[in-house]
Amino acid sequence: MQSVSNTSYTFRLRPIMFAAQLLCLGMTVAHAQTTPADSADQSKDTAVPSDSVVTITGRKAGMGLMVAEDAPKARSTITKEEIQKQRTTDNAYQSLALLPSVNSYNYDATGLFGGGLTMRGFNSDQIGATINGVPINDSGSYAVYPSQFIDQENVCSEFVTQGSTDVDSPHVGATGGNIGIVSCDPEDKQRVRAIQTLGGLGLSKSYVRYDSGRFSDDRAKIFISASHAQSNKWKGEGAADRNHIDFGLRFDIDKFNYITADVIMNRMDNNNIYNLTQAEITKNGYFYDYAPTFIGHLTPVNGTAQTEVSQSPAYYKLSRNPFEDVIASATAKFRLNDSTDIKILPYFWFGYGTGGSQEKAISESGFLNPATGKLNGTVDLNGDGDTKDKIIVAGSSVTRTDRPGVTASITETLENNTIIGGIWYEQAHHRQTSPIVPVDNAGNLASDWLNNDLIDRPNGTPYQARDWKTVSTAWQLFLQDTISLMDDNLRINVGARNPSIKRDFTNYANEGNNSAVTYEIAHTYTDFLPQLGLRYEVNAESQVFSSLSKNLKTPPNFAFSSSTGDNVTIVNGQPVLSSSVKPETSWNLDLGYRYQSRAMIAQATVFAVDFKNRLANAYDPITQISSYTNAGEVKTHGLELEIGNSPIKGWSAYGSFGYTESKISNDIQLGAAHFLPTTGKEFPNTPKYKFGLSAQYETAVWYTRFKAQHTSSQWATLVNDQEAPGYNLCDFDAGYLLPSSGMFKNPTLRLNVSNVFNAQYRNPSSQSVSNSVAINGIAPSNVYYYLGAPRLISASLQVDF
Fold it and tell me: Which of 72, 657, 668, 747 has its CA 20 to 30 A from that of 716?
């Protein structure tokens, strides 16, 4: 989970949102009519019919679920045409759910509680993610938190490259391709847009966006939007609460030179949804969740030990994920001459927050004594005058990240060559602590964000179950030559990048496992990653393509922690890495065919992946200890299909199919004589088959569509001894363009129904669980699942001014 800090900013949007609600709900409606299209409906991603009327959807092939691609690699893109039909609270993972080989699952139907994603068997922390070119994977663990991203109303496109990362991708943790989100530019004409969404589970989202239109001699334009969203959990007690601001600027110096700037601010405070084991589902039912009441404290008695035991599951108010972040970036593009362009993209990412289950029982005699390095310091936690007790408090991971960076590139266009070269550099300061605060008898934390009223050690410093500082300095050079031959019928990409990262890790003595000693470790990882791609146009509508690339994921910062297995040992007062952890690497091969006409787009890709040095907790036979290390090789191959047509008498459809076959190539050693029999097993959380379908009927003023998705069964453990069954999901969406009236322009009503048939299903929450049944002397591990949310109905009303 992520974490926030004493410098936390606060932005509250409820007054603005309340005004937007009154504005939207006060509108009157009449019979439908056609009106001239405004700039909002003529975005680069939405086609406007030749009769120049407003249409509620676009008319390009693929319905916004795919576009004509020209890259010499597997790539899938969705556009604003698709995104605007989805529920306004959806996150980026939900938007990508129908794409082939993308196994997207969310913790609830609203998208506010986050979600997970795998692609060709790679987890989201092995897939690079960017917003407008800014890396958004966690700088320490590479995790991605989709509910914190930009409001979907401001997104113009999302894309995935299923195998090869782009040559200028700012990633050191992407063995499985990348995901990109591109925001919309400000509108050319002045406009105010308000959207109000209401639905089941107390769902509400209020959104207002202001576009200035062009000013300053038609060279500049800006937008700013604000939203507030909230929803109850679909099971148990608790809710999500999200406030968000987006800002965008574009300044066109002339036809070839421009500057853009974007700011994304997000503040959320969610209760967590409890993940169940298969046994818990059988015993307690599908809707079992965190405890609705707090167990309370024992009555303090001097001289007698009060031993409190934290609840399992924890009290729901003590399982929360408050987090806030700011992503600020700018892009400057300048043409130096007819053949030379430069682009500079500086950015800054700030994040602070906490998460997970905070309820824990702490011994009054287990505090760190910094003078001796022993955990024998004593503190009276319940005020009874002794230190014999064990008391429930609240504590969890707290993380603050300050992350500046920049990407700079130069593009030189020659007669048959387009050469791009550049550099990426960033330095992330990652401060990770784990303080504790008192909990009253009603189960309320003394500090929701764990940044005030901290419980101190006897010497006055805060108790910390973890106390790390990581400075991660990342950089890469990249170079690519795109060679155009045979009148551009043949295009060849030859490129390479050399991502590097230096981890400067400091563990300050703390109360965590094996962490009572302060130590520092610095380690640098680097690699050379070549890429080769070819695209050949058979004719105006057909092309074949292929790509071969090497990808990389360097070890996360927690690989240097002594509290993670036995990664670090102290020898003669000096820290020693227990194993030489190598970066993960993957070789990705794509071979594909595309058919692209005005009436239909289709793409077929076969792929093969050679994945080496998978990072996991395993046993090192040389050092004879267990640690975070490399656990072997996985071979993966498969097939991906996509097809979409332009509307025929109002009817259009999109279909996708993904087939992924994965095999683990070796057994994994978990002890001196304990081997996990994984050779030939399928990789967990990798469904073999996935189908997606979207069928739509539209007119100029309304549409209905039905979406269906089948995900096959998938293994939940590395030895394939527990399986998550396959499942089918169906959604229904509809929209209606109401007549403009006075100052109210293009009012649009949208309906979204997710999980129409109320299916119950589950996805494994991890790819690292070894076995659910004891085998070869290896004890079983619990397998937890993200459960699918039941049916949810919501409606949105949008109006422009």
Answer: 657
List, run by run, the mean pLDDT of 10-residue segments along the chain (801 residues). Answer: 38 38 33 31 34 54 88 92 94 93 91 92 92 94 90 95 89 92 96 98 98 97 98 97 98 96 97 95 97 97 97 95 96 96 98 93 95 92 97 96 98 95 97 97 95 96 96 97 95 96 95 88 94 96 96 90 73 75 91 95 96 68 49 90 94 96 89 85 93 95 96 94 96 96 94 97 90 90 94 98 94
Counting DSSP H helices and E strands in the chain, the numbers are 4, 49
Give the neighbor-by-neighbor strand order of the sheet with 390-395. Answer: 359-363, 390-395, 436-437
Say whether 121 sits in a helix, a strand or coil.
Answer: coil
Among 656, 657, 592, 669, smallest CA distance to 630 is for: 669
The conformation of residue 82, written as its DSSP 8-state character, comes to H
Locate tokens 């196994």: which residue?
Answer: 103
Distance separating alpha carbons of residues 520 and 560, to the nearest angstrom = 9
Q: What is the largest CA-CA distance in the chain?
A: 90
Residues 6+ positions from 252 with CB-CB distance below 8 Å: 219, 220, 258
Q: How far apart are CA 158 and CA 84, in angstroms?
A: 12
C-alpha span between 2 and 5 (Å, rounded): 12
3-state secondary structure 338-367: CCEEEEEEEEEEEEEEECCECEEEEECCCE
Q: How far apart are CA 207 and CA 217, in angstroms?
A: 30
| 76, 99 Cβ separation under 8 angstroms | yes
Give residues with Cβ within 8 angstroms of 459, minimum separation 6: 369, 370, 371, 377
CA pair distance 97, 727, nearest whole angstrom: 14
Selection from 132, 36, 192, 635 nearest residue 343 by Cα: 132
Q: Cα separation of 586 and 584, whole Å?
A: 7
| Cβ atoms 635, 662 nearer than 8 A | yes
Distance between CA atoms of residues 175 and 630, nearest Å: 14
742: tokens are: 């006075």
Amino acid at 438: P
Residue indicated by tokens 């020898």: 571
Q: Between the CA of residue 292 and those of 23, 120, 275, 282, 318, what are the distances in Å? A: 37, 39, 15, 20, 11
Pairing of strands 529-537, 542-553: antiparallel
Radius of gyration of the chain (CA): 27
Dihedral of alpha carbons 168, 171, 174, 177, sign: negative
| This prediction's pTM | 0.90
Task: Round to whole Å and give the CA distance between 219 and 166.
Answer: 31
Which amino acid, residue 757?
A: F
For residue 440, with 0-12 CB atoms within 10 Å meaning exposed, 13-18 middle and 19 or more buried, which class applies?
exposed
Place of tokens 């409001």: 151
Among candidates 713, 706, 796, 702, which has minimal Cα distance to 761? Answer: 713
Q: Quick one: which H or E segment has residue 115?
A: strand 115-119
The token pair at 90 is 């959806």
683 token code pair: 């990789």
**Phi-psi bin for 107: left (phi > 0), alpha (psi -120 to 50), beta?**
alpha
Residue with tokens 């920049």: 406
Which residues neighbour 643 within 8 Å (Cβ) at sequence distance 6 or greater? 600, 601, 602, 603, 654, 655, 656
